Amino acid sequence: LGVEPGKLRAYRGQIRIVQKQGILQIYNLVSMKDYLLSVVGSESQADFPLEALKAQAVLVRTSMERYKTGDLLNDSTEKQAYLGADWERPAVQEAVDQTAGEIVRFKSRPINVFFHSCCAGS
Predict the structure, then answer these.
(1) Distance in angstroms between the alpha carbons of the first and the last residue of the chain
(2) Distance CA 95, CA 4 (A)
(3) What DSSP string runs through 61-102?
(4) Alpha carbon distance 111, 55 (integer Å)
(5) pLDDT tens track for 12-48
(6) Under DSSP, is residue 41 helix (H, G, I), strand (E, B) or coil?
(7) What pTM does this model have?
(8) β-bridge pairing 109-110 and 105-106
(9) With 0-12 CB in 10 A as exposed, 13-18 as middle and 19+ as buried, what is 65?
(10) H or E element: which one contains 20?
(11) Which residues make Cβ contacts (< 8 Å) with residue 22, sequence separation at least 6?
């Protein structure tokens, strides 16, 4: 995703550092909107059209509906890339704002969203 090794990242929200059994754990507590802005920006290219960004925003929001408040997520590509505030941009802001509250449901429940960054030609 173009992240330079050793480059500092900017994050919104609160940072909490906890020591458990001699290991430091770092948590970034953010609002849903700030999370969406970062993930949609992190999971897309700068030249993505607005409609693609809107689709991504709806799918990210839908996947978040399946979590409970307080569930922990990581910042890797295991679920969704979360690279911080540096990946926000005006088009992403517009996409998130225009799709506010929209999720995809099947039989009244949020769908299970699957996505990947490489389709291997399929």
Answers:
(1) 21
(2) 26
(3) HHHHTTSPTT----SSTTS-----GGG--HHHHHHHHHTTT-
(4) 14
(5) 999 999 999 999 988 889 999 999 999 999 989 999 9
(6) helix
(7) 0.82
(8) antiparallel
(9) middle
(10) strand 14-20
(11) none
